[in-house]
Amino acid sequence: MTPKIVFDNVTRRFDLKGGSFLALDRFSLDVADGEFVTVVGPSGCGKSTALNIAAGLLKASGGEVTVDGKPVEGPGPERGMIFQQYALFPWLSVRDNVEFGLRIKGEPPARRREIAERFIDLVGLGQFADALPKTLSGGMKQRCAIARAYAVDPVILLMDEPFGALDALTRVQLQDQLLETWSRERRTVMFITHDVDEAVYLANRVVVMAAGPGRLQEIIEVDLPYPRTEEIRLSPEFTAIRNRVWHAVYHQQPAQSHG
Amino acid sequence: MSAASAKPRTASSGKAERGPAMDFASLGLNIVGVAAGVAIWWALTGSGVVGLPRPPEVLARFIELLGSGQLLRDTVASLARVLTGFLLGVLLAIPVGFAMGWYKVARALVEPYLQFFRMIPPLAIIPLAIVTMGIEETPKIFVIFLASFLASVVATYQGVISVDRTMINAARVLGAKDFTIFRRVVVPASTPFILVGVRIGLGSAWATVVAAELIAAQSGLGYRMQQAQLYYDLPTIFVSLFAIGILGLVMDRMLQAVERRLTIWQERI
């Protein structure tokens, strides 16, 4: 099967005063169709840079990202993105936020409303459809952002530390909801996190990255069945994989020339 | 106009939003303060310490000017100038401010002029305006236009450049192109800034009209004061000053109400 997303030697440099900074160095990764990949690594490892390039929000300085064999040249609604800061439009109600992408797609009002309704219910915000974002808690805001991303029916979800700003309990709830939706609809997910437990709990594969320059360190298969449950989270197998990932993230060798 | 340097988030009424009990208490104190001021004024002028008109004289003149229609005519003349100049200024400031925030080229082209004219008090333009535009309404309206334009354009520009990048990115990944992003994200996101600019613009327009009428006009509240000055008519000067202050306050409060309504979605600290 051909991979859904291919990172082919992707490099990104940021120009700074008096030089440049290598944020991502020859990063290569294949993500299969329907796969759930998490990416972990210390800050400065280029994980967000890689995601933003795949989203089309940043341009690669070298190499390229292809989706279904086509090079990414800009953002597109087939690649939905979820941000850590929610990025809801505060002047729009939950419903209008969810309808935003549908309006751009040119869906007629009745259809827009119907689709929005479905996804608002899916994330459990039915009662809050007409509320403004400022009245919602952090977890509810992120659920609204997830509904907004789902509404345009993307084939790929790019998630940039989406649960990083939430409390531990809300985070676990949203992880379970995300996995539930994913196992039903099988969208390809690339999920960035700095939480090793979260990375292992969600993923088919965990991509560990290293900093200075940002690069791929190791890819670890998570050989645990879905649906993931609390039992799995507490099992010795989970702990073993978690420890491997932990070691890969926190005991990294300094950068050396490689190719 | 202390909102000038404040961020829009905190600009509207700050502590006043603590609930009705607080509001009644502070309203009561407001009235006590005003009453005390009038009492002191009355005591000072009544005892002859200062040669200013006493409250009853000013009130009598107010009733007289109101009855003869003079006060209304002056007020209408001043308001017409202010609103014309102010509306023209704001209507131009908003697109120019947006262009400056959105296009680097526009910013680089316009900014030197903006910074330069900001340093010149609008009133200093009056001599030039009278010479080139005559003594009719045009020079006055032009000066007011300039004052409100300069105040609003900077706020609009600031509003556009401080729109959250993540929000723009969120719109882009949902498929929005530049024009949609501008209309559906940048415009609403910068509304709070624009409204602060509009309020500052109205304040400076009002300040400018009165001063402009003092220098060159045949009608208006400023002109009336200038005439009264010639005849040592202090009560009329007082009536005009009160009218200027109260009208300015009323216009500001009206804009503040509009602002609160349009920015109800903002998370206030």
Question: How are the secondary structure elements laid out?
Answer:
The complex is a heterodimer of chains A (259) and B (269).
Chain A: E1 5-16, E2 19-31, E3 36-40, H1 47-55, E4 62-67, E5 70-71, E6 79-82, H2 94-105, H3 109-122, H4 138-151, E7 156-160, H5 168-185, E8 188-192, H6 196-202, E9 205-210, E10 215-221, H7 230-233, H8 236-250
Parallel strand pairs in A: 3-8, 3-9, 6-7, 7-8
Antiparallel strand pairs in A: 1-2, 1-4, 4-5, 9-10
Chain B: H1 8-11, H2 20-46, H3 55-68, H4 70-102, H5 104-118, H6 126-133, H7 137-161, H8 165-173, H9 178-215, H10 221-230, H11 234-262
Describe the model.
The complex is a heterodimer of chains A (259) and B (269). Chain A is an alpha/beta fold and 259 residues long. Chain A has helices at 47-55, 94-105, 109-122, 138-151, 168-185, 196-202, 230-233, 236-250; strands at residues 5-16, 19-31, 36-40, 62-67, 70-71, 79-82, 156-160, 188-192, 205-210, 215-221. Chain A is 36% helix and 25% strand. Chain A has a 6-stranded mixed sheet with strand order 6-7-8-3-9-10, sandwiched between helices. In chain A, helix 2 (94-105) packs across helix 3, helix 2 packs parallel to helix 4 and helix 6 crosses helix 8. Chain A starts with a strand and ends in a 9-residue tail after the last helix. Chain B is mostly helical and 269 residues long. Chain B has 11 helices and no strands. Chain B has helices at 8-11, 20-46, 55-68, 70-102, 104-118, 126-133, 137-161, 165-173, 178-215, 221-230, 234-262. In chain B, helix 4 packs across helix 10. The chains are: A alpha/beta (259), B mainly alpha (269). Chain A binds chain B through residues 55-57, 74-77, 79-81, 83, 85, 87-92, 100-101, 104-105, 132-134, 145, 148-149, 152, 158, and chain B through 164, 166-167, 169-176, 180, 184-185, 188-189, 191, 264-267.
Order of helices and strands of chain A: EEEHEEEHHHEHEHEEHH
Q: Shape of chain B from CA axes? A: globular
What is the highest CATH level, the class of the largest domain in chain A?
Answer: Alpha Beta
Task: Figure out the total of helices of chain A.
Answer: 8
In the CATH scheme, the class of the largest domain in chain B would be Mainly Alpha
What's the overall geometry of chain A?
Answer: globular
Tally of structural domains of chain A = 2
CATH H level of the largest domain in chain B: which superfamily? MetI-like
Give the CATH H-level superfamily of the largest domain in chain A: P-loop containing nucleotide triphosphate hydrolases
Q: Architecture of the largest domain in chain B, CATH level 2?
A: Orthogonal Bundle
Provide the β-strand percentage band of chain A.
25-35%
Assign a percent range to the helix content of chain B: over 70%
Biggest sheet features of chain B = none
CATH 2nd-level architecture of the largest domain in chain A: 3-Layer(aba) Sandwich
Average predicted confidence as pLDDT of chain A: 92
Q: Count every beta strand of chain A, where a strand is a DSSP E run of 2 or more residues.
A: 10
